[in-house]
Amino acid sequence: MENPMKTKSFEESEEVELRRGPWTLEEDTLLTNYILQNGEGRWNLVAKCAGLKRNGKSCRLRWLNYLKPDTRRGNLTPQEQLLILELHSKWGNRWSKIAQYLPGRTDNEIKNYWRTRVQKQARQLNIESNSDKFFDAVRSFWAPRLIEKMEQNSSTNCCPQNNNNNNNNSLLPPQSYDSMSTQTYTDTSGQNPGLSNMDGSSSSSTFMPDLMTGPHFIDPNTIIDGSMCYQEGNYQELGGYIPRMEEYFYMGNSDIGTEYHVAEAYEDVTQDPMWNMDNIWQFRE
DNA sequence: AAAACAGGCAACCGCTGGCCC
DNA sequence: TGGGCCAGCGGTTGCCTGTTT
Question: Where is this region: Disordered (predicted)?
């Protein structure tokens, strides 16, 4: 089979030999330097003016997913994982929408996380990753562990002056954090994924039903994260919430007893060495 | 040590919708 | 109004790397 990475359309080959496949350091540098000097603009123009033999789409993808300065890379924190689970339960595969609430994370990264980690665990349980049963499993077993991890981090890693985020540009929360915090957790306009459904109706959060209520807040100015910790006025994030554990062991309003009990499934898979939350969610200090 | 396998992720593909002429 | 161009999105592919046999 011909390698599609080396094929190109007739249109592309007609004018200039367009490059495809992995980006080189030189290409990255060209693109970065151009955008930093001239802004993004039209991507086809960017590609041309930057001297790249790439199409605009490729440049856009490379910039947004990899080169953009506020892009955060590395393992997703427990907070981010929990938020992804929560938002996906609301919106489904609306990756770009979900990504809006995880500053610095790209839709591609979230999509990959979902497909490689979450769906893998769903397969382990023999359930559809978009099914109610799966949500029950998440709510009953995974979310508590993520929250537990968050609590551990909160007690050991909260050090506002010691930001270990591996992002070189993480000296302060990126701008989008501000919009995230207001949109996500203080906004009552219907943008809040924890308060509204896609149809605009109101409902409680699937995995974090009471996050918006007072008792679950720790210091709202403290942002706890496995790899970073901010303390800043008017800056709230999911990571700042430490809900009471026992509420997350509640099975919710599911009817899982009817055909496939998630708890039983959980017991089954605990025989599997894969079912170790630290491994499953790739918690790395 | 090497081959086979599996997982993770960067990049591409194709579709859709918005904008402009 | 319709066609062309473009950006953005979700789905998919295939390469790379680590692990297992």
Answer: 153-204
Is nucleic acid strand C under 7 Å from A207's C-beta? no
Q: What percent of chain A has pLDDT over 70?
A: 47
Question: Is the per-residue pLDDT at A127 higher than 50?
Answer: yes
The pLDDT, as a whole number, for residue A148 is 76
A137 in Cβ contact with A268 (< 8 Å): no
Homologous superfamily assigned to A15-67: Homeodomain-like (1.10.10.60)
Q: Which residue is nearest to nucleotide C16 (CA to C1')?
A: A22
Q: Give A188 CA → B7 C1' in Å.
A: 40
Phi, psi of A215 (to 5 degrees): -55, -20
Query: In the prediction, which pLDDT does A93 show?
Result: 82
- For the segment A220-226, the average pLDDT, to the nearest whole number, is 33
A80 CB contact with strand B at below 7 Å: no
Cβ neighbour number for residue A284 with a 10 Å cutoff = 9
With a cut of 70, say whether residue A242 has pLDDT above it.
no
Which residues 21-60 in chain A have a CB closer than 7 A to strand C? Answer: 22, 41-45, 56-57, 60
Mean pLDDT of chain A: 58
Distance in angstroms (rounded) separating the CA atoms of residues A154 and A242: 9
Lowest mean pLDDT among A38-47, A156-165, A233-242, A274-283: A233-242
Q: Considering only A82-86, A145-149, A175-179, which range has the smallest mean pLDDT? A: A175-179
Amino acid whose CA is nearest the C1' of B13: A4
Closest nucleotide relative to residue A1's CA, C1' based = C14
The residue extents of the domains of chain A are: 15-67, 78-280
A3 CB less than 7 Å from any atom of strand C: yes
Quote the crossing angle between the two packed helices A143-156 and A78-91, to the nearest 10°. Answer: 150
